[in-house]
Structures are given as structure tokens and as C-alpha cells.
Design a protein that fits this description.
The structure is a homodimer. Chain A is an all-alpha fold and about 200 residues long. Chain A is about 70% helix and about 0% strand. Chain A binds a DNA duplex (30 and 30 nucleotides) through loops.
DNA sequence: GTAGGGGGTTAGCGGTGACTAACCGGATGA
DNA sequence: TCATCCGGTTAGTCACCGCTAACCCCCTAC
């Protein structure tokens, strides 16, 4: 068995190919607007072959969204772990989210739009991960700007997610400029005028 | 004919009731996730009775989205017409959008998520209206902050829409506080530190 | 050389969803 | 009084969609 004992990232496995294609389609047409055959033909196989890799269409969405939420939470925690000044931590966190959104527009779109199409247990899991990610932001914001009330910080976090995640809907600047712009806007929106 | 010759806003007509209910459902479950029977029973009638009021399910979505786009464009133009200082005009425009989003969370959600489910002609129409609304914002932003390049202003407009439209996803503050917070954040994100 | 299994195929089933057909009751205006 | 029509009903059609069944080909390991 030449290529085995290594479930690591070699080349994109079939599963990953499928998830990527499905994300693109879900983002464009919505979960129910995409057929199993559409996903299949997007990766060059046709229709029911997908069931060799996933138990159901729901399972694809579930795996996709939990993966995203875990990447965001883990990445966020890592950024916060590397302790620097409160404001620098906030900036790191913003930058991290901006990078993720710019590099994974389809995933961001699916996460925003298709949470409601998850299975109940999947939704619970994803909601939990998202809640922890929001709490991370709340803490970081309140550390950087101590005057902020907790509900306000939560509302700000959601608003900034909306700002950053709007990225897939506008492709006017190149990646670097877009990253800088979004980061600057998010920070300006989070820390009151004058810093 | 007692009540006629007045297509004006009396009490919510059946059509309007239906559109409101449909908007709520589309926002929650997505266009394809909602059945004709769901919409019907949401207004107390059942199933195919809807076809006395709309030609098709697509037509409902089409009418809904063009109406939203027209309200936004008209309202925006009205705000800009009442000429004040450039910065006050921008603030008015922001406030207008914030109010609309807070008062019509379902509509905002549908407009954000279900543009892709429109018929081709409907999508063209809505896209056109949206484009003009964005251009309005671009002009107002560039008048208030002349240093802004046009593509940057466009990207900023989209980002601020994302910020404001995130409203349906967070209900942590009461309406007034939320309006103030979103307005402040949007303005901070649009006009560079120090004004 | 061959057994086994991973990954693909096509055919078909059952359910559901948009829409139509056919019918109906009651308010209205001549 | 009665024709009309508006807005509702239920039954039914047809397409499509998720998923299973049954089959098959190759690649690998013994």
C-alpha cells in the first residue's frame, strides 16, 4: 500500500474535491437549488457516485459547515493565544477573518446562508462552535476597548462579520487592497474614533 | 364599487399579506425550501389559492425583490435630494438604510440570499436597480470624502451594506440602540479616522 | 492468477412540489 | 332576480429529486 497511513493533506482527496464543488454550487443556487447530479458532474463523476463518499446530501452540508466553524474557532484561538497588546490582538483577529473570507468566498457564503438547511444535530454543533467564536471576539473587543458593554460587543462582532463576509459580493479591488480596506474598516467600526 | 379608484395603501391587501408571509419563509428556509402550501397556510388559505393573486412562485420572489430595490433607490435619492452638508447627507443615507434594515429584516435577508433564484429578466431588473443604488452611495461617499477612489468607494459601499444587513442575525440590543450603533459603525468605517 | 474491494455506472423507486382543472359560494350591480 | 366574477376549495398531473439496487471494472496483495 504505497499511499496509506497518511490521511494528511497530499493532493485534494475526492471528498475534498466534492466538498469544494458543492460549496460553490450551494453558494450560488442555495442548498435546495442544487441537485445531487449537479454536484456529481461538477467533479466529473455523475450522480449517485457521491454516495461512495458521503452518506447523504445533508451530510455534505453538515461536514462542510462544521469544518468551517472549526477552522475559524481554532484559528481565532491561536491568534489570541499569541499574546500581544490588546489592540494588536484585535487587529490580528480581524486580519485572520479577513484572510479566511477572501480565500474562501464560497464557504463563507454557504455558512451565512445555509445554516437553516442543516440537520438538527448538525445545526446544534455548528451553532455551538459559532457561539464560541463570537465569544472569543467579544472578549478580544472588550479587552481592547474596555468601555464596551457585553451586548454591544456581541452586536458589533456580528456587524463586523457582516462587513467582512460581504467580500464575495464585490470584486472591485485586488486581494491585497481588499484585505487592507476591510481590515481598516472593521477596526474603525470596532474602536471608537481616536485611538 | 365603494373602495376603488384607490390602489393606495388602505389595509394590507391580500397580495401584500402573501408577500410578507412569503418573505418571512424565504428568509428562514430559502426559496426552494418553501412550498406553495407553506405560504398559503401562513396566510390562512391553502395551497393553490395563491394562483388567484400571483402567476407563479417565481413571480412572488420577483415582485418582492423589485419592490425592495425600488424602495431603497427611491428613498436613497430622496435623502440625497435634500441637500445638506456632504457629511450630513452621508449620515442621512446611512440612517435611512439602517432604518430599513431594522424594520424589514426578512426582506433584507431575502434580498441578500435569494437574488440567485430570480428569473433571468427579473434578476436583470433588480441588478439594475441595485447598481444605481450603489452608485448613489459611491457618489455620496466620494463627495463626503473626496480622497476616496471610485473602486474603493464601491467596495466600501458593499462592505457597509454587509455590516448593516447583518442586523437580522443579531438581536442583542433594542431597536434604538441598534440603530445608533450600526449608524456609528458604518460612518466610522466610511470616513477615515479624524473628521 | 486470482480474490477482494474501492469507486464508478445506469435503471428505477417513492415522495414531493409546482401548477392546472373543475367546481363552488357569496357579494354585487343591472 | 339573477348573471357575473372574485377568491376560495379539492383532486390530480407531471416533473424532478434524493437515494437504493444491481452491476462492473480495475488495481492491488497474496
Amino acid at each position: 500500500m504505497p499511499p496509506a497511513a497518511e490521511p494528511v493533506a497530499d493532493k485534494p482527496s475526492r471528498r475534498e474535491q466534492i466538498l469544494a464543488a458543492a460549496a460553490e454550487l450551494f453558494a450560488r443556487h442555495g442548498f435546495h437549488g442544487v441537485g445531487i447530479d449537479d454536484i456529481g458532474s461538477a467533479v466529473g463523476i455523475s450522480g449517485p457516485a457521491l454516495y461512495r463518499h458521503f452518506r447523504s446530501k445533508d451530510a455534505m452540508l453538515g461536514e462542510m459547515l462544521t469544518a468551517i466553524s472549526e477552522v475559524l474557532l481554532d484559528g481565532g484561538q491561536a491568534r489570541v493565544g499569541a499574546a500581544r497588546s490588546p489592540h494588536d490582538t484585535l487587529e490580528d483577529l480581524v486580519r485572520f477573518h479577513v484572510d479566511f473570507a477572501l480565500d474562501n468566498p464560497a464557504l463563507i457564503t454557504v455558512q451565512e446562508r445555509n445554516l437553516g438547511n442543516l440537520t438538527d444535530p448538525d445545526r446544534r454543533k455548528v451553532r455551538g462552535l459559532q457561539r464560541r467564536y463570537v465569544e472569543l471576539w467579544v472578549e478580544v473587543v472588550r479587552t481592547a476597548v474596555p468601555a464596551t458593554e457585553e451586548p454591544t460587543a456581541r452586536a458589533q462582532a456580528h456587524a463586523v462579520f457582516g462587513l467582512i463576509n460581504s467580500t464575495p459580493h464585490s470584486r472591485h479591488l485586488d486581494r491585497a487592497q481588499m484585505a487592507d480596506l476591510l481590515t481598516a474598516m472593521a477596526l474603525a467600526a470596532l474602536v471608537p474614533a481616536r485611538a
